[in-house]
Amino acid sequence: MRKGSVIIYLAIASFLNPSAQTIKGPHVLNPQKISLTNELNNNPVIGAIRWDGWYYGRSDDDITAILEKTLAPKEFHNRLPFFAKEISDDSVYINGSSQEVIDEEIAYAKTCGLDYWAFVMYPENTGLSIGLKNYLASKYRGDINFCVITEEARLTNVDTSYTNNILTLIKQPGYQIVLENRPLWYIGFVDSAHVQKAWGGFRQMKSKIDSMRNTIIEAGLGNPYIVIMDFNAAKGKQWCDSLGADAISSYVTQKSTPHASYKTLTKEAEQFWEECKGTGTQVVPVCDAGWNPKPRIDYVNIWSHFYPKDVYYDYATPAEVTAHIKSGMEWTQKNKAFSNAQCVIIYAWNEYDEGGWLGPMLHEGSARIDAVGKMIREFKKKNKQ
């Protein structure tokens, strides 16, 4: 899914897209640093995945040029984020690369009650890293923590700049921790053939990860809590054991059911939680805000071959998404023996053309954010009583 442009100057962006900021989030005047864990109040830590392909203007790596095609048909304009603009019934403009956009998203995430964003991590100088750079530069970043998701294929013994950047980020203020002091680190999309080619086997890759653990501990932080993301619970367990990781989860979960309801998707997610639990491994349950990659299927592009043609699920209402996330939080609390980190991850904040989002929309506005935020506040209030 994540297989794989510099920022347009704001003046140019404003000229080209004057209505890009049509929705205003809650204004943050005095951002307060949020607590790193919710353990004292018996609340699970709630995060959402960020995949930041919504930049513009990189001729060498212009992912947004593809996304403007996948979301161009009128039937998909309901997927457009708040910073997008409809040009016509079959043309859209998308540019989420400005500092103002991420600042506003942080305010929305705070309203949503999220504790952290999990950024899919790319090499520093690519367009796909603009979102993370802007987050780190934001004066409001204290309103939501962050962590990283690294694709296994990017962990090599050749590209030391990538692994060094992981270590740098984990040492940053506001990096999400669990179990009092353990930095949260997701590793996904493990491919055994690539591990063999790049490392000579899992033992050698584990040795590198152990070395990174030690570097982080020596810096005065806790032992990283590493979560393996895999679509199959048994495979996740296998990779977790092979790499000495701590828990399993998934980037998204679905059972490849041809055109089905969102209710079916939530049942499949709940089934996946139980499958993970059945392996005897610690679990970070993933909640699906949706799965409908039809835009990537209909407009043939570099990702199309990853998606079976008829596998997609109907859109969810804000109430349905909220109920599903609440179920994930409740499952986490009821299964503490198998969820020691008391952590939940949501697919996703901004996977608009894949069909999973919480982030504010051009047409729907902040309906999902408002509904989820209300639920999370009530959930936390109840746990304090």
Describe it.
By secondary structure, the chain is an alpha/beta fold. It is built from twelve helices and 14 strands. It has helices at residues 10-16, 63-70, 99-112, 130-137, 160-170, 192-199, 202-218, 233-243, 262-278, 294-298, 318-334, 367-384, and strands spanning 45-50, 85-88, 91-93, 116-120, 145-151, 177-178, 182-188, 225-229, 247-249, 282-283, 286-288, 343-347, 350-351, 356-357. The protein is globular. The model is unreliable at 2-37 (pLDDT under 50).
Please write out the topology.
Layout: H1 10-16, E1 45-50, H2 63-70, E2 85-88, E3 91-93, H3 99-112, E4 116-120, H4 130-137, E5 145-151, H5 160-170, E6 177-178, E7 182-188, H6 192-199, H7 202-218, E8 225-229, H8 233-243, E9 247-249, H9 262-278, E10 282-283, E11 286-288, H10 294-298, H11 318-334, E12 343-347, E13 350-351, E14 356-357, H12 367-384
Parallel strand pairs: 1-4, 1-12, 4-5, 5-7, 7-8, 8-9, 9-10, 11-12
Antiparallel strand pairs: 2-3, 6-7, 13-14
Helix pairs in contact: 3-4, 3-12, 6-7, 8-9, 9-11, 11-12
The gist of it:
By secondary structure, this protein is an alpha/beta fold.
Percent in strands = 5-15%
Looking at the chains present, what oligomeric state does this protein adopt?
single chain
Order of SSEs: HEHEEHEHEHEEHHEHEHEEHHEEEH
CA radius of gyration: 20 Å
Mean pLDDT: 90
Largest sheet: 10 strands, mixed
Distance between the termini: 41 Å
Number of helices: 12
* Principal-axis shape: globular
**Fraction of residues in helices?**
25-40%
| Protein structure class | alpha/beta
Poorly predicted runs = 2-37
Based on DSSP secondary structure assignment, what is the total number of beta strands? 14
